[in-house]
Amino acid sequence: MDHYGDNVATSPSRVDGAQSIARALRVLRTVARTAQEGAGLLALTRETGMNKPTVHRLLAALAAEGMVEQDPVTRRYFLGPECHVLGHIASQRHGLARLAADTVANLAHTCGDSAFFSIRRHVFAVCVLREDGDYPLKTHALRPGDRHPLGVGAGSLAMLAALPDDEVDACLHANAALIEQRYPNYSPALLRAQVSEARAQGYAANRGLIVPGSWGIGVPVRGADGQVAGALSIAAIESRLDEERQFQLAKLLSKEAKKLESLAESAGVLRKDSAAARAAPDEHRRKSQGRTPGDITMRGENHA
């Protein structure tokens, strides 16, 4: 009897099929990132790097399965009803984002700026929740569905810094080519320095490296096993995140992260989400010898 691993390299139909699935998922994720405004065919072609006929063919296949739908007036594409069904089913197992909704809303209401919840998926961070506060000037650097290499962005950096050193190395190695290609302000050396800084000060900071003038801070959210499952973060224009306010908001983030961890642990969610987050090929899981943002007392915090 043949084994899949024995034939995958020599079976053109299997390779082509896998490539088609990967391309369809790339299109689907790109549509998801557009949230309420939808995505046009030309934008999807540009964002995915595929040619127009291929994107159109994949969209037609996804639409036939209810995964996307097209607005008859604007001709833009949106996530379809089948995505909602699958998402609802998946939330029963991976429900951390659902539990984090009130936390993110509370953060945005309290600080007045934009608050986020991101989850770890292998060597990437994916934003799943965003809530805007009432301050009129907002940053638009991160939207639900956006996916960045671990370390790129405040919440993403908080997750990377909370990992053991060998996992940090593995993530940076896996993402090195992508970072060089798409993130000109980043480098492995810079990310290592930022990891050290985040561990020392107790929170991660992004000082406008993705979008100039858009700053952010973040802290990790851990599972019951101590593993990283996600991150809470706040983003604002540079003038609203001076050093003193960073410390104050970091304390708020840390407090809300601990509350979310307790809530999720009682619901049995974090055990599942942290396991799913770190499930990736060649990933190391040895215990870190260094400090992490979740372990460090933040400056100015009173433990009397």
List keywords for this structure.
11 helices, Arc Repressor Mutant, subunit A, disordered C terminus, two-stranded antiparallel ribbon, transcription regulation, Beta-Lactamase, globular, 6-stranded antiparallel sheet, DNA-binding, 2 domains, 304 residues, disordered N terminus, alpha+beta
Structure description:
The chain starts with a helix and ends in a 26-residue tail after the last helix. It has 2 domains: 20-84, Orthogonal Bundle (Arc Repressor Mutant, subunit A); 94-267, Beta-Lactamase, CATH 3.30.450.40. The model is unreliable at 1-15 and 280-304 (pLDDT under 50). The protein has helices at residues 4-7, 12-33, 41-48, 52-64, 81-91, 96-111, 154-161, 165-182, 188-201, 243-267, 269-278; strands at residues 68-70, 77-79, 114-121, 124-132, 147-149, 204-207, 214-222, 228-237. It has a 6-stranded antiparallel sheet, with helices on both faces. Strands 1-2 form a two-stranded antiparallel sheet. α2 packs across α4 and α7 crosses α9 (188-201). β6 (204-207) and β7 (214-222) form a beta hairpin. The chain has 304 residues and is an alpha+beta fold.
Q: Into how many domains do the coordinates divide?
A: 2
Distance from first to last alpha carbon: 67 Å
**Main structural class:** alpha+beta
Spell out the helices and strands N to C: HHHHEEHHEEEHHHEEEHH
What's the rounded overall pLDDT mean?
A: 82
- Gyration radius (Cα, Å) is 20 Å
CATH class of the largest domain: Alpha Beta
Name the overall outline.
globular
